[in-house]
Amino acid sequence: MFEGGDAVHEMDCIYEEHAQMVFKYLMVLCKEENLAEELTQETFYRAIKSSNRYDGTCKVSTWLCQIAKHIWYQEIDRKKRKETSELSEEIVSNNICIEEKICLKERKMELIKKVYKLDQISKEVVLLRITGAFSFREIGELFNKNENWARVTFYRAKQKIGKGV
């Protein structure tokens, strides 16, 4: 795939067909429109660079979402490094308000930890669904499954989170 003189045209067609779906997927992950747009562009840039490694064993949309997910993880790592630095500065400059922020952050972290203890597929289904950006039908399509599979997977994941995973 993506070889010869038609490679540019083929990637243009792939972009037209999948850009909105990749953008929605990234919006679910990052919840920031500008960042999602930037990461969508980076996804297609990396897809072009690595197009020779696409072997056709999965849907193009799945391949693109995997690239987008890896880019998002890299963004999270970058943000964590930045937040650690900013948190250190904030602790030094504002000890009173920081306690409240830390308590709130700890509660959020507990929930996030429970979500991230789930198996990879359940975790992705939960994240895609709780943002409201994807229907169960769309989630099923992303995983090459049906709508009922997405509903059951989401329900079971919620049960695991409630039990502390």
Helix content: over 70%
Total tally of structural domains: 2
Q: What is the chain-wise order of helices and strands?
A: HHHHHHH
Q: Number of helical runs? A: 7
> What is the level-2 CATH architecture name of the largest domain?
Orthogonal Bundle
| Number of E strands | 0
Structural class comes to mainly alpha
CATH topology of the largest domain: Rna Polymerase Sigma Factor, Chain: A
Q: At the first level of CATH, what is the class of the largest domain? A: Mainly Alpha
CA-based gyration radius: 19 Å
- Net shape: globular
Distance between the termini: 41 Å
Largest sheet: none
- CATH superfamily annotation of the largest domain: RNA polymerase sigma factor, region 2, helix turn helix motif
Strand content: under 5%
The parts where pLDDT drops under 50 for at least 5 residues are none
- Please tell me the overall pLDDT: 83
GO molecular function: DNA binding; sigma factor activity
Keywords: DNA-binding, Sigma factor, Transcription, Transcription regulation
Protein name: ECF RNA polymerase sigma factor SigM
Domain RNA polymerase sigma-70 region: 14-81
Question: Overview of this structure, please?
Answer:
- This protein has two domains: 1-93, RNA polymerase sigma factor, region 2, helix turn helix motif (Rna Polymerase Sigma Factor, Chain: A, Orthogonal Bundle), CATH 1.10.1740.10; 95-165, Arc Repressor Mutant, subunit A (Orthogonal Bundle), CATH 1.10.10.10.
- The protein contains seven helices and no strands.
- The protein has helices at residues 7-30, 33-49, 60-93, 95-117, 120-130, 136-142, 147-162.
- Helix 1 (7-30) runs antiparallel to helix 2 and helix 2 packs across helix 3 (60-93).
- The model has no long low-confidence stretch (mean pLDDT 83).
- Belongs to the sigma-70 factor family. ECF subfamily.
